[in-house]
Amino acid sequence: MTTPETPQPLQFGWEEWVALPELGVPALKAKVDTGARTSALHAFDIETFGPASKPKVRFTVHPIPGRDDLVIPCSATIIDRRDVTSSNGERELRYVISSNLTVGDDSWPIEITLTNRSTMASRMLLGRQALKDHISIVATDRFLQPELSYDVYHTARMRNEQPKRALRIAVLSREDNYSTRRLVSEGEARGHTVEVINTTRCYMAINAMAPEVHYDGKRLPRFDAVVPRIGASITPYGTAIIRQFETIGTYCVNSSAGITSSRDKLYAHQLMARAKIGMPNTAFAASPHDTSNLMGLVGTAPLIVKLLESTQGKGVVLAETKKAAESVIDAFRGLKANFLVQDFVKEAAGEDIRCLVIGGKVVGAMKRTGAEGDFRSNLHRGGSAKAVRITKIERDTAIRAAKVFDLNMAGVDLLRSEAGPKVLEVNSSPGFEGIEGSTGKDIVGALYDLIESRVRPAPVRRRKSSKTAEE
User: Fold this and answer.
1) Which of 125, 220, 256, 286 has the fewest C-beta atoms lying within 10 Å of its C-beta?
2) pTM of whole model > 0.85?
Protein backbone atom coordinates (compact mmCIF):
# COMPACT_ATOMS: atom_id res chain seq x y z
CA MET A 1 0.00 0.00 0.00
CA THR A 2 1.42 3.34 -1.07
CA THR A 3 1.17 6.15 1.42
CA PRO A 4 0.67 9.69 0.11
CA GLU A 5 3.83 11.71 0.08
CA THR A 6 4.09 14.44 2.68
CA PRO A 7 4.61 17.83 1.06
CA GLN A 8 8.18 19.00 1.34
CA PRO A 9 8.35 21.90 3.81
CA LEU A 10 8.93 25.34 2.39
CA GLN A 11 11.42 27.54 4.15
CA PHE A 12 10.84 31.27 4.18
CA GLY A 13 13.32 33.84 5.34
CA TRP A 14 12.18 37.06 6.97
CA GLU A 15 11.93 38.60 3.47
CA GLU A 16 10.96 36.85 0.22
CA TRP A 17 10.21 37.61 -3.43
CA VAL A 18 6.50 37.03 -4.20
CA ALA A 19 4.08 37.71 -7.05
CA LEU A 20 0.38 38.62 -7.19
CA PRO A 21 -0.43 37.66 -10.81
CA GLU A 22 -4.19 38.28 -10.52
CA LEU A 23 -3.42 41.90 -9.64
CA GLY A 24 -0.81 42.30 -12.38
CA VAL A 25 2.10 42.47 -9.89
CA PRO A 26 4.76 39.96 -11.07
CA ALA A 27 7.52 40.82 -8.60
CA LEU A 28 7.39 42.18 -5.07
CA LYS A 29 9.54 41.99 -1.95
CA ALA A 30 7.46 40.97 1.07
CA LYS A 31 8.37 40.99 4.75
CA VAL A 32 7.24 37.88 6.66
CA ASP A 33 5.60 38.75 9.99
CA THR A 34 4.06 35.90 12.00
CA GLY A 35 2.87 38.44 14.55
CA ALA A 36 0.32 39.79 12.05
CA ARG A 37 -2.80 37.79 11.16
CA THR A 38 -3.62 39.20 7.72
CA SER A 39 -1.25 40.22 4.96
CA ALA A 40 -1.08 43.87 3.90
CA LEU A 41 -0.31 45.48 0.52
CA HIS A 42 0.91 49.01 -0.05
CA ALA A 43 -1.93 50.71 -2.01
CA PHE A 44 -2.75 54.25 -3.15
CA ASP A 45 -5.90 55.91 -4.51
CA ILE A 46 -8.17 53.34 -2.87
CA GLU A 47 -11.72 53.80 -4.19
CA THR A 48 -14.82 51.60 -4.00
CA PHE A 49 -17.22 51.10 -6.89
CA GLY A 50 -19.83 48.69 -8.21
CA PRO A 51 -23.19 47.55 -6.79
CA ALA A 52 -23.76 47.46 -3.03
CA SER A 53 -24.52 43.72 -3.27
CA LYS A 54 -21.04 43.01 -4.66
CA PRO A 55 -18.78 46.01 -4.05
CA LYS A 56 -15.36 46.25 -5.59
CA VAL A 57 -12.30 48.28 -4.86
CA ARG A 58 -9.76 49.80 -7.22
CA PHE A 59 -6.36 51.01 -6.20
CA THR A 60 -2.84 51.55 -7.48
CA VAL A 61 0.36 49.83 -6.39
CA HIS A 62 3.92 51.18 -6.49
CA PRO A 63 5.76 47.84 -6.32
CA ILE A 64 9.31 49.25 -6.27
CA PRO A 65 10.38 51.39 -3.30
CA GLY A 66 11.44 54.83 -4.46
CA ARG A 67 9.75 54.42 -7.85
CA ASP A 68 6.47 56.28 -7.50
CA ASP A 69 6.45 56.79 -11.27
CA LEU A 70 5.76 53.06 -11.71
CA VAL A 71 2.01 52.63 -11.22
CA ILE A 72 0.11 49.34 -11.43
CA PRO A 73 -3.70 49.88 -11.48
CA CYS A 74 -5.57 47.05 -9.77
CA SER A 75 -9.14 46.07 -8.93
CA ALA A 76 -10.68 43.31 -6.85
CA THR A 77 -13.89 42.25 -5.13
CA ILE A 78 -14.16 43.34 -1.49
CA ILE A 79 -14.58 40.33 0.81
CA ASP A 80 -14.53 42.18 4.14
CA ARG A 81 -13.71 45.39 5.98
CA ARG A 82 -11.77 45.04 9.21
CA ASP A 83 -10.24 47.04 12.02
CA VAL A 84 -6.51 46.38 11.89
CA THR A 85 -4.00 47.45 14.53
CA SER A 86 -0.57 48.10 13.07
CA SER A 87 2.75 47.32 14.77
CA ASN A 88 2.95 50.88 16.10
CA GLY A 89 -0.47 50.54 17.76
CA GLU A 90 -2.54 52.58 15.29
CA ARG A 91 -5.99 51.25 14.36
CA GLU A 92 -7.29 51.51 10.80
CA LEU A 93 -10.43 50.28 9.03
CA ARG A 94 -9.18 48.52 5.90
CA TYR A 95 -10.72 46.84 2.87
CA VAL A 96 -9.91 43.15 2.55
CA ILE A 97 -9.51 41.39 -0.80
CA SER A 98 -8.51 37.88 -1.86
CA SER A 99 -5.83 37.08 -4.42
CA ASN A 100 -3.46 34.26 -5.30
CA LEU A 101 0.06 34.52 -3.90
CA THR A 102 2.79 32.95 -6.03
CA VAL A 103 6.16 31.94 -4.57
CA GLY A 104 8.40 29.91 -6.86
CA ASP A 105 6.27 27.12 -8.32
CA ASP A 106 3.64 27.32 -5.57
CA SER A 107 0.47 29.40 -5.65
CA TRP A 108 -2.37 29.69 -3.13
CA PRO A 109 -5.13 32.18 -2.21
CA ILE A 110 -4.57 34.64 0.62
CA GLU A 111 -6.43 37.54 2.18
CA ILE A 112 -4.88 40.99 1.79
CA THR A 113 -5.69 44.29 3.46
CA LEU A 114 -5.05 47.52 1.57
CA THR A 115 -3.17 50.31 3.31
CA ASN A 116 -0.57 53.01 2.78
CA ARG A 117 2.84 51.51 3.67
CA SER A 118 4.93 54.40 2.28
CA THR A 119 6.79 54.68 5.59
CA MET A 120 7.57 50.94 5.61
CA ALA A 121 10.65 49.38 4.00
CA SER A 122 8.58 46.54 2.42
CA ARG A 123 5.75 47.06 -0.01
CA MET A 124 3.98 43.95 1.34
CA LEU A 125 3.67 42.16 4.64
CA LEU A 126 2.89 38.42 4.81
CA GLY A 127 0.83 37.52 7.87
CA ARG A 128 0.02 34.16 9.48
CA GLN A 129 -3.04 33.51 7.30
CA ALA A 130 -0.87 33.55 4.17
CA LEU A 131 1.65 31.03 5.51
CA LYS A 132 0.68 27.43 4.80
CA ASP A 133 1.04 24.76 7.51
CA HIS A 134 4.18 23.31 5.96
CA ILE A 135 6.03 26.65 5.77
CA SER A 136 8.79 27.14 8.28
CA ILE A 137 10.34 30.50 9.00
CA VAL A 138 14.08 31.02 9.24
CA ALA A 139 14.16 34.40 10.93
CA THR A 140 17.88 34.93 10.43
CA ASP A 141 17.84 34.54 6.61
CA ARG A 142 16.16 36.15 3.64
CA PHE A 143 15.32 35.13 0.06
CA LEU A 144 15.32 31.36 0.59
CA GLN A 145 12.82 31.00 -2.28
CA PRO A 146 13.56 31.70 -5.97
CA GLU A 147 14.48 35.31 -6.52
CA LEU A 148 12.60 37.54 -8.95
CA SER A 149 13.61 40.82 -10.54
CA TYR A 150 12.12 44.28 -10.88
CA ASP A 151 13.33 44.17 -14.49
CA VAL A 152 10.04 42.47 -15.40
CA TYR A 153 8.27 45.83 -15.07
CA HIS A 154 10.23 47.19 -18.02
CA THR A 155 9.36 44.45 -20.51
CA ALA A 156 6.85 44.38 -23.37
CA ARG A 157 5.25 41.36 -21.71
CA MET A 158 4.41 43.50 -18.67
CA ARG A 159 2.74 46.09 -20.90
CA ASN A 160 0.83 43.62 -23.06
CA GLU A 161 -0.21 40.87 -20.64
CA GLN A 162 -1.86 42.76 -17.82
CA PRO A 163 -4.77 40.81 -16.28
CA LYS A 164 -8.26 42.00 -17.07
CA ARG A 165 -9.52 44.20 -14.28
CA ALA A 166 -12.90 45.62 -13.43
CA LEU A 167 -13.27 49.08 -14.93
CA ARG A 168 -15.43 52.05 -14.07
CA ILE A 169 -16.98 53.35 -17.28
CA ALA A 170 -19.19 56.36 -17.95
CA VAL A 171 -21.66 56.46 -20.84
CA LEU A 172 -22.47 60.07 -21.73
CA SER A 173 -26.08 59.84 -22.91
CA ARG A 174 -29.42 61.57 -22.41
CA GLU A 175 -31.47 58.69 -23.83
CA ASP A 176 -32.64 55.38 -22.40
CA ASN A 177 -32.50 53.53 -25.71
CA TYR A 178 -31.22 50.20 -27.01
CA SER A 179 -27.65 51.44 -27.47
CA THR A 180 -27.37 52.82 -23.94
CA ARG A 181 -28.92 49.72 -22.37
CA ARG A 182 -26.61 47.42 -24.35
CA LEU A 183 -23.55 49.37 -23.22
CA VAL A 184 -24.64 48.93 -19.61
CA SER A 185 -25.61 45.25 -19.83
CA GLU A 186 -22.51 44.17 -21.78
CA GLY A 187 -20.18 46.08 -19.48
CA GLU A 188 -21.75 44.65 -16.33
CA ALA A 189 -21.65 41.14 -17.81
CA ARG A 190 -17.87 41.59 -18.10
CA GLY A 191 -17.59 42.63 -14.46
CA HIS A 192 -17.27 46.37 -15.07
CA THR A 193 -19.29 49.14 -13.46
CA VAL A 194 -21.09 51.24 -16.08
CA GLU A 195 -22.78 54.50 -15.14
CA VAL A 196 -25.03 56.49 -17.50
CA ILE A 197 -24.35 60.21 -17.16
CA ASN A 198 -26.72 62.82 -18.59
CA THR A 199 -24.35 65.08 -20.50
CA THR A 200 -26.32 68.30 -20.00
CA ARG A 201 -26.35 67.83 -16.21
CA CYS A 202 -22.54 67.82 -16.06
CA TYR A 203 -20.62 70.95 -15.23
CA MET A 204 -16.93 71.69 -14.98
CA ALA A 205 -14.35 73.12 -12.61
CA ILE A 206 -11.66 74.41 -14.95
CA ASN A 207 -8.29 75.00 -13.31
CA ALA A 208 -4.70 74.04 -13.99
CA MET A 209 -3.98 71.90 -10.96
CA ALA A 210 -7.18 69.88 -10.44
CA PRO A 211 -9.69 69.97 -13.33
CA GLU A 212 -12.96 68.27 -12.37
CA VAL A 213 -16.32 67.24 -13.77
CA HIS A 214 -19.32 67.63 -11.46
CA TYR A 215 -22.75 66.06 -11.74
CA ASP A 216 -25.90 66.75 -9.72
CA GLY A 217 -23.99 68.63 -7.04
CA LYS A 218 -21.09 66.18 -6.63
CA ARG A 219 -17.68 65.71 -8.18
CA LEU A 220 -17.71 62.71 -10.49
CA PRO A 221 -15.39 59.87 -9.49
CA ARG A 222 -12.37 58.85 -11.54
CA PHE A 223 -13.52 56.86 -14.57
CA ASP A 224 -11.29 54.50 -16.53
CA ALA A 225 -13.11 55.22 -19.79
CA VAL A 226 -15.87 57.39 -21.24
CA VAL A 227 -18.16 56.31 -24.09
CA PRO A 228 -19.61 59.47 -25.66
CA ARG A 229 -23.18 59.27 -26.98
CA ILE A 230 -23.48 62.96 -27.77
CA GLY A 231 -26.63 64.06 -29.60
CA ALA A 232 -26.24 66.50 -32.50
CA SER A 233 -28.29 69.17 -30.73
CA ILE A 234 -25.80 69.41 -27.83
CA THR A 235 -22.56 68.90 -29.75
CA PRO A 236 -20.79 72.09 -28.49
CA TYR A 237 -21.55 71.45 -24.81
CA GLY A 238 -21.09 67.68 -25.09
CA THR A 239 -17.66 68.02 -26.66
CA ALA A 240 -16.69 70.55 -23.98
CA ILE A 241 -17.48 67.90 -21.34
CA ILE A 242 -15.40 65.34 -23.25
CA ARG A 243 -12.50 67.82 -23.43
CA GLN A 244 -12.68 68.11 -19.66
CA PHE A 245 -12.42 64.33 -19.28
CA GLU A 246 -9.49 64.39 -21.71
CA THR A 247 -7.84 67.08 -19.56
CA ILE A 248 -8.23 64.87 -16.50
CA GLY A 249 -6.58 62.01 -18.42
CA THR A 250 -9.59 59.73 -18.85
CA TYR A 251 -9.61 57.48 -21.93
CA CYS A 252 -12.41 58.65 -24.23
CA VAL A 253 -13.50 56.22 -26.96
CA ASN A 254 -14.02 59.13 -29.36
CA SER A 255 -12.13 62.37 -28.92
CA SER A 256 -13.80 65.77 -28.68
CA ALA A 257 -11.96 66.90 -31.82
CA GLY A 258 -13.13 63.87 -33.81
CA ILE A 259 -16.77 64.34 -32.81
CA THR A 260 -16.66 68.07 -33.59
CA SER A 261 -15.13 67.65 -37.04
CA SER A 262 -17.42 64.77 -38.04
CA ARG A 263 -20.52 66.76 -37.00
CA ASP A 264 -19.55 69.77 -39.11
CA LYS A 265 -20.62 68.39 -42.49
CA LEU A 266 -18.79 71.04 -44.51
CA TYR A 267 -15.52 70.56 -42.62
CA ALA A 268 -16.01 66.78 -42.70
CA HIS A 269 -16.23 66.79 -46.49
CA GLN A 270 -13.16 69.01 -46.72
CA LEU A 271 -11.19 66.61 -44.53
CA MET A 272 -12.29 63.61 -46.60
CA ALA A 273 -11.43 65.43 -49.82
CA ARG A 274 -7.97 66.13 -48.45
CA ALA A 275 -7.58 62.40 -47.70
CA LYS A 276 -8.80 61.57 -51.25
CA ILE A 277 -11.78 59.57 -49.99
CA GLY A 278 -14.55 59.08 -52.55
CA MET A 279 -17.78 61.00 -51.88
CA PRO A 280 -20.62 62.56 -53.89
CA ASN A 281 -19.72 65.80 -55.69
CA THR A 282 -20.38 68.50 -53.12
CA ALA A 283 -20.66 72.30 -53.29
CA PHE A 284 -21.22 75.09 -50.77
CA ALA A 285 -21.81 78.83 -51.16
CA ALA A 286 -23.13 81.69 -49.05
CA SER A 287 -24.17 84.21 -51.68
CA PRO A 288 -27.67 83.90 -53.25
CA HIS A 289 -26.19 85.11 -56.56
CA ASP A 290 -24.26 81.85 -56.91
CA THR A 291 -27.21 79.44 -57.02
CA SER A 292 -26.84 78.44 -60.68
CA ASN A 293 -23.07 78.13 -60.49
CA LEU A 294 -23.39 76.19 -57.25
CA MET A 295 -25.69 73.65 -58.92
CA GLY A 296 -23.43 73.51 -61.94
CA LEU A 297 -20.45 72.50 -59.79
CA VAL A 298 -22.33 69.42 -58.64
CA GLY A 299 -24.00 68.35 -61.86
CA THR A 300 -27.47 68.11 -63.29
CA ALA A 301 -30.71 67.38 -61.45
CA PRO A 302 -31.74 65.44 -59.49
CA LEU A 303 -29.71 66.98 -56.65
CA ILE A 304 -29.53 66.54 -52.88
CA VAL A 305 -29.80 69.66 -50.71
CA LYS A 306 -28.65 68.95 -47.17
CA LEU A 307 -28.62 71.12 -44.05
CA LEU A 308 -25.24 71.13 -42.33
CA GLU A 309 -26.97 70.31 -39.05
CA SER A 310 -29.07 67.45 -40.46
CA THR A 311 -29.27 64.13 -38.57
CA GLN A 312 -31.16 60.87 -39.12
CA GLY A 313 -32.26 62.04 -42.57
CA LYS A 314 -33.92 65.24 -41.31
CA GLY A 315 -33.09 68.33 -43.32
CA VAL A 316 -32.16 66.31 -46.43
CA VAL A 317 -34.19 67.08 -49.56
CA LEU A 318 -34.15 65.46 -53.00
CA ALA A 319 -34.72 68.04 -55.73
CA GLU A 320 -35.66 66.13 -58.89
CA THR A 321 -35.50 69.13 -61.26
CA LYS A 322 -33.38 72.22 -61.59
CA LYS A 323 -36.37 74.41 -60.74
CA ALA A 324 -37.11 72.36 -57.62
CA ALA A 325 -33.47 72.63 -56.54
CA GLU A 326 -33.53 76.41 -56.92
CA SER A 327 -36.72 76.59 -54.85
CA VAL A 328 -35.27 74.48 -52.04
CA ILE A 329 -32.02 76.47 -52.01
CA ASP A 330 -33.93 79.75 -51.89
CA ALA A 331 -36.08 78.43 -49.04
CA PHE A 332 -33.06 77.34 -47.02
CA ARG A 333 -31.37 80.69 -47.62
CA GLY A 334 -34.52 82.45 -46.50
CA LEU A 335 -34.21 80.57 -43.19
CA LYS A 336 -30.55 81.67 -42.99
CA ALA A 337 -29.58 78.00 -42.86
CA ASN A 338 -26.24 76.57 -43.94
CA PHE A 339 -26.48 73.74 -46.45
CA LEU A 340 -24.60 71.63 -48.97
CA VAL A 341 -25.61 70.66 -52.48
CA GLN A 342 -24.64 67.16 -53.68
CA ASP A 343 -25.22 65.09 -56.78
CA PHE A 344 -27.74 62.27 -56.47
CA VAL A 345 -26.22 58.80 -57.01
CA LYS A 346 -29.01 57.19 -59.01
CA GLU A 347 -27.48 53.73 -59.16
CA ALA A 348 -27.64 53.47 -55.36
CA ALA A 349 -31.43 53.20 -55.77
CA GLY A 350 -32.29 54.45 -52.31
CA GLU A 351 -29.86 52.07 -50.59
CA ASP A 352 -26.70 52.69 -48.61
CA ILE A 353 -24.30 50.60 -46.56
CA ARG A 354 -23.56 51.31 -42.91
CA CYS A 355 -20.13 50.02 -41.87
CA LEU A 356 -19.44 49.93 -38.14
CA VAL A 357 -15.75 50.64 -37.56
CA ILE A 358 -14.26 49.95 -34.12
CA GLY A 359 -10.57 50.29 -33.39
CA GLY A 360 -9.65 50.54 -37.06
CA LYS A 361 -11.60 47.42 -38.10
CA VAL A 362 -15.00 46.95 -39.74
CA VAL A 363 -16.83 44.76 -37.23
CA GLY A 364 -20.20 44.72 -39.03
CA ALA A 365 -21.92 45.97 -42.17
CA MET A 366 -25.58 46.26 -43.17
CA LYS A 367 -27.44 47.42 -46.26
CA ARG A 368 -30.18 49.94 -45.48
CA THR A 369 -33.12 50.40 -47.81
CA GLY A 370 -35.46 53.38 -47.59
CA ALA A 371 -39.16 53.05 -46.98
CA GLU A 372 -41.38 52.96 -50.07
CA GLY A 373 -41.23 56.31 -51.86
CA ASP A 374 -38.40 57.64 -49.66
CA PHE A 375 -34.87 58.05 -51.05
CA ARG A 376 -33.48 58.21 -47.49
CA SER A 377 -32.46 54.88 -46.03
CA ASN A 378 -32.32 55.87 -42.35
CA LEU A 379 -33.83 53.23 -40.05
CA HIS A 380 -35.31 56.04 -37.93
CA ARG A 381 -37.44 56.97 -40.96
CA GLY A 382 -38.89 53.52 -41.50
CA GLY A 383 -36.09 52.02 -43.57
CA SER A 384 -35.10 48.36 -43.33
CA ALA A 385 -31.72 46.70 -42.94
CA LYS A 386 -30.05 43.38 -43.67
CA ALA A 387 -26.51 42.04 -43.38
CA VAL A 388 -24.32 42.60 -46.42
CA ARG A 389 -20.93 41.36 -47.58
CA ILE A 390 -18.75 44.31 -48.47
CA THR A 391 -15.82 44.42 -50.88
CA LYS A 392 -12.22 45.04 -49.87
CA ILE A 393 -12.30 48.55 -51.33
CA GLU A 394 -15.50 49.34 -49.39
CA ARG A 395 -13.88 48.02 -46.21
CA ASP A 396 -10.72 50.05 -46.79
CA THR A 397 -12.75 53.18 -47.57
CA ALA A 398 -14.75 52.86 -44.32
CA ILE A 399 -11.58 52.37 -42.25
CA ARG A 400 -9.86 55.34 -43.91
CA ALA A 401 -12.91 57.54 -43.36
CA ALA A 402 -13.00 56.76 -39.63
CA LYS A 403 -9.26 57.37 -39.42
CA VAL A 404 -9.60 60.83 -40.98
CA PHE A 405 -11.52 61.92 -37.88
CA ASP A 406 -9.46 59.80 -35.48
CA LEU A 407 -12.63 58.00 -34.34
CA ASN A 408 -12.26 54.69 -32.54
CA MET A 409 -15.98 54.04 -33.02
CA ALA A 410 -17.78 55.24 -36.15
CA GLY A 411 -20.69 54.43 -38.40
CA VAL A 412 -19.52 55.07 -41.95
CA ASP A 413 -22.32 55.37 -44.54
CA LEU A 414 -21.37 54.42 -48.10
CA LEU A 415 -23.13 54.52 -51.45
CA ARG A 416 -22.30 51.98 -54.13
CA SER A 417 -21.71 53.94 -57.33
CA GLU A 418 -20.32 53.09 -60.74
CA ALA A 419 -17.14 54.96 -59.78
CA GLY A 420 -16.71 53.00 -56.54
CA PRO A 421 -17.82 53.56 -52.93
CA LYS A 422 -18.75 57.11 -51.97
CA VAL A 423 -18.89 58.16 -48.32
CA LEU A 424 -22.07 60.00 -47.36
CA GLU A 425 -21.36 60.57 -43.69
CA VAL A 426 -19.21 59.48 -40.73
CA ASN A 427 -21.30 59.17 -37.56
CA SER A 428 -19.44 59.43 -34.23
CA SER A 429 -22.40 58.09 -32.19
CA PRO A 430 -23.75 55.20 -34.27
CA GLY A 431 -26.71 53.19 -33.00
CA PHE A 432 -26.21 49.49 -32.24
CA GLU A 433 -29.75 48.11 -32.57
CA GLY A 434 -29.94 47.97 -36.35
CA ILE A 435 -26.44 46.65 -36.93
CA GLU A 436 -26.62 44.00 -34.19
CA GLY A 437 -30.12 42.94 -35.22
CA SER A 438 -29.33 42.59 -38.91
CA THR A 439 -25.87 41.02 -38.62
CA GLY A 440 -26.28 39.00 -35.42
CA LYS A 441 -22.84 40.21 -34.34
CA ASP A 442 -21.85 41.36 -30.86
CA ILE A 443 -20.87 44.89 -31.85
CA VAL A 444 -20.91 46.25 -28.30
CA GLY A 445 -18.70 43.35 -27.22
CA ALA A 446 -16.16 44.43 -29.85
CA LEU A 447 -16.29 47.95 -28.39
CA TYR A 448 -15.53 46.62 -24.90
CA ASP A 449 -12.65 44.57 -26.32
CA LEU A 450 -11.22 47.85 -27.56
CA ILE A 451 -11.77 49.65 -24.23
CA GLU A 452 -10.19 46.81 -22.24
CA SER A 453 -7.15 46.79 -24.52
CA ARG A 454 -6.65 50.56 -24.36
CA VAL A 455 -7.26 51.13 -20.64
CA ARG A 456 -4.04 49.72 -19.28
CA PRO A 457 -0.93 51.07 -17.56
CA ALA A 458 1.22 53.27 -19.76
CA PRO A 459 4.64 51.82 -20.66
CA VAL A 460 7.17 52.67 -17.95
CA ARG A 461 10.57 53.96 -18.93
CA ARG A 462 13.56 52.76 -16.99
CA ARG A 463 15.20 55.45 -14.94
CA LYS A 464 18.94 55.85 -14.92
CA SER A 465 18.77 55.40 -11.16
CA SER A 466 16.70 52.20 -11.30
CA LYS A 467 19.63 50.11 -10.10
CA THR A 468 19.97 52.30 -7.05
CA ALA A 469 16.19 52.19 -6.47
CA GLU A 470 16.23 48.39 -6.56
CA GLU A 471 18.97 48.24 -3.98
Assistant:
1) 286
2) no
